[in-house]
Amino acid sequence: MNTQFSCVGCGKCCSDHHVPLTLDEARQWAADGGNVIVLVEGFLGNGIGLPALQREHAERRSAIVPSGNTEAYVAITFAAYNAGPCRNLDEDQLCRIYERRPLVCRIYPMEINPHIPLNPAAKDCPPESWEQGPALIVGGECVDQELAELIRRSRQADRDDIQTKEAVCGLLGIHTTALKGDGFTAYLPDMNAFAAAIEQATEQPSIANEWVFHVSGLDIAEQLLDAGARIATEVPANYAFISLRAA
User: Fold this and answer.
1) For 5-45, what is each residue's pLDDT tens digit?
2) Which domain of life is it from (predicted)?
3) For the chain, what is the domain count?
C-alpha cells in the first residue's frame, strides 16, 4: 500500500474532533482556557474486551487497577474538547498556535494506534489531499522519518503519563470505565479542578483507585461479573457512556 498526502488547509480535521493530548499538553490546554474531555476504556487481565494481537500495545498505555476481586487495565485519554471548530482556528481556518500545536495535530492524518491502518476514506480531508504531495506510506510502512518519530513520541507519552492520569482521575472522582470495544466513558471535569488535580498528582504519586465497568448489555455484564470485576449499577452522575456496540 502506497499513500501520498498534502494538506490543503480546509480545516475539517480541526472541527468536531476531540484531539488526544499528552499530560503536559492537557495542562497547557486548560491553562489557555480550553476544555479537556476525559475518555476511558478498559479490559481485564484475563483478556476480556481485548483482541490478542492488540494486547501488548493496550497494556503498555494502561494503568493496572483493582476492580472487585480482579485486576483491570484502564486506558485514559485526555483530549481537547472541540464541539465545533477548534478554539484556535482563525477566520481563515488557520491555526493560531501552529508552532506549539499538539503532537496528534502534527501527526495527522497518520494513526497513533499501530493496529489501525491509515484509511483515507475515514478522514475528513478532501480527495485532492490524497492526490498530491510526498509519500506517507510505501509498502505499508511510514517513510517520513520525522513523522515516525512524532508517532513514537506520542506512544511513549501515553505510557509515561498513564499513572499520573489515573491519579488525576482519582482526585476528580472518576472511577467508571467502559469495556474496550464496547464503548467509552466520557467526563467533562471543571477545568480549575482538573488543573489542580494534575499538579497534585504530579507531586504526590498515589495508590490506584478501584474502578467499575459501565457496559452496554447484560451479556457483557455477566462476563465481567463472572471474572470478578465490579459493574456500575447507578445512573451516571458525572459522565456519559458512548456505546460502540452495533444497534
Assistant:
1) 999 888 889 998 899 999 999 999 999 999 999 999 999 98
2) Bacteria
3) 1
Block means of pLDDT (10 residues each) for the chain, length 247 residues?
86 91 97 96 85 89 96 96 92 91 95 90 91 87 91 96 96 96 96 96 85 95 96 92 83
3-state secondary structure of 17: coil
Looking from the CA of 54 toward its CB, the CA atoms found within 13 Å total 16
What residues are paired with 137 via a beta bridge?
3, 142
Q: Which residue, 225, 198, 194, 226, is CA-closest to 212?
A: 225
Contact 7, 14 (CB under 8 A): no
Closest residue by Cα to residue 77 from 115, 48, 46, 104 = 104
Nearest to 62 by CA among 50, 17, 70: 50
Residue from 128, 80, 82 nearest 104 by CA: 80
